[in-house]
Amino acid sequence: xxxxxLQQEIEDARARLHLAxxxxxxxxxFYDKSVYLDQLIADYIDLCxxxxxxx
Length: 55
What we know:
Helix 1 packs antiparallel against helix 2. The protein has 55 residues and is an all-alpha fold. It is built from 2 helices and no strands. Helix content is 84%, strand content 0%.
Protein backbone atom coordinates (compact mmCIF):
# COMPACT_ATOMS: atom_id res chain seq x y z
CA UNK A 1 0.00 0.00 0.00
CA UNK A 2 1.33 3.45 -0.84
CA UNK A 3 1.91 6.05 1.84
CA UNK A 4 -0.90 8.22 0.49
CA UNK A 5 -3.36 5.31 0.53
CA LEU A 6 -2.28 4.40 4.05
CA GLN A 7 -2.71 7.99 5.22
CA GLN A 8 -6.23 8.06 3.77
CA GLU A 9 -7.12 4.74 5.39
CA ILE A 10 -5.84 6.07 8.75
CA GLU A 11 -8.02 9.16 8.43
CA ASP A 12 -11.03 7.03 7.46
CA ALA A 13 -10.43 4.69 10.40
CA ARG A 14 -10.12 7.65 12.77
CA ALA A 15 -13.43 9.00 11.51
CA ARG A 16 -15.12 5.60 11.98
CA LEU A 17 -13.70 5.37 15.50
CA HIS A 18 -15.01 8.83 16.33
CA LEU A 19 -18.45 7.95 14.99
CA ALA A 20 -18.42 4.72 16.99
CA UNK A 21 -17.80 6.73 20.15
CA UNK A 22 -20.52 9.24 19.35
CA UNK A 23 -23.08 6.59 18.44
CA UNK A 24 -22.42 4.50 21.52
CA UNK A 25 -21.30 1.34 19.77
CA UNK A 26 -20.52 -1.63 21.98
CA UNK A 27 -17.18 -1.78 23.71
CA UNK A 28 -16.07 -4.74 21.59
CA UNK A 29 -16.91 -2.96 18.33
CA PHE A 30 -15.14 0.19 19.52
CA TYR A 31 -12.15 -1.90 20.59
CA ASP A 32 -11.96 -3.62 17.20
CA LYS A 33 -11.96 -0.26 15.41
CA SER A 34 -9.29 1.03 17.79
CA VAL A 35 -7.05 -2.01 17.25
CA TYR A 36 -7.45 -1.63 13.47
CA LEU A 37 -6.41 2.03 13.67
CA ASP A 38 -3.42 1.12 15.85
CA GLN A 39 -2.33 -1.45 13.25
CA LEU A 40 -2.62 1.09 10.43
CA ILE A 41 -0.49 3.55 12.38
CA ALA A 42 2.12 0.84 13.04
CA ASP A 43 2.11 0.00 9.32
CA TYR A 44 2.60 3.69 8.50
CA ILE A 45 5.55 3.96 10.89
CA ASP A 46 7.11 0.82 9.39
CA LEU A 47 6.67 2.22 5.89
CA CYS A 48 8.24 5.53 6.88
CA UNK A 49 11.19 3.77 8.48
CA UNK A 50 11.73 1.75 5.32
CA UNK A 51 11.52 4.93 3.22
CA UNK A 52 13.58 6.88 5.81
CA UNK A 53 11.16 9.80 5.85
CA UNK A 54 8.02 10.48 7.83
CA UNK A 55 5.62 13.35 7.53
